[in-house]
Amino acid sequence: MTFFISDTHFGDSEDGFVILGRENIFENKDDMINQLIENWNATVRKSDTVYHLGDVFWGLSDEVRKDIISQLNGTKILIMGNHDRDHDPDYWRKIGFNKVYDMPVLYNNGFLLSHEPIYITYGPIINIFGHVHSSTIYKDYSPTHFCACVERINYTPVTEEYIRFCVNKSRREAFLRDAYK
Predict the structure, then answer these.
(1) Which contacts (CB < 8 Å, 24+ apart) does range 18-23 have?
(2) What is the Cα–Cα distance from 26 to 170, expressed in whole angstroms?
């Protein structure tokens, strides 16, 4: 199976995502790290693939970073985010990612994977992105996008099938809304 997640920010502040506008749902950064690892491994098998859409860490030493990534199940592919660009793709491969991209990637003839949202108004392409966290400017999903920020997906990687279900639901709702105007 293939999964998607973004903006784990492993190691973010002592207060979890407080700095990102979220209520404090973690006791401390260790609690946050442990919960993210537990959620990931309860969902993802070793034979699965996970696309991480950027902003993996916030601080932490290289040794701790390697340790965290080594604990996560699956083949891990990184689409670099703005907080990942302090290192080149080779660094991220040494940390434990199997593949690393510093640009958006077209996946499975229909998904455009990026860290930041890419504006798509119509068509078969679905942009899966992160970066926006809990900003109310962006919906969780629409006929052309899905936000994979951890806050929006219960801090757990989501499957390609789940994303297609959400987007198709949104497309049906938009069609019905437009058909009965």
Answers:
(1) 20/133, 20/134, 20/151, 21/133, 21/134, 21/135, 22/133, 22/134, 22/151
(2) 31
86 versus 47: the higher-pLDDT residue is: 47
Rg for the chain, CA atoms, rounded:
16
User: Is the pTM value of this prediction over 0.70?
Assistant: yes
Residue 77: closest CA among 110, 109, 43, 115: 115
Structural contact between residues 49 and 2, judged by C-beta atoms closer than 8 angstroms:
yes
To 5 degrees, how large is the angle CA 78–CA 150–CA 174?
100
User: Model confidence over 88-133: pLDDT tens digits?
Assistant: 999 999 999 999 999 999 998 799 999 999 998 877 899 999 999 8
Q: Taking each helix axis from N to C terminus, what angle separates 29-43 and 62-71, rounded to the nearest 10 degrees?
A: 30
Let me know: does 36 contact 8? Beta carbons within 8 Å.
yes
Q: What residue type is 1 in one-letter code?
A: M
Residue 65 to residues 33, 69, 74, 84, 154, Cα–Cα distance (Å)? 11, 6, 16, 12, 22
Mean pLDDT of the chain: 89
Provide the residue ranges of all domains of the chain, joining segments of one domain with +: 2-179
Q: What is the CATH number of domain 2-179?
A: 3.60.21.10
Q: How far, in Å, CA of 43 to CA of 82, rounded?
A: 26
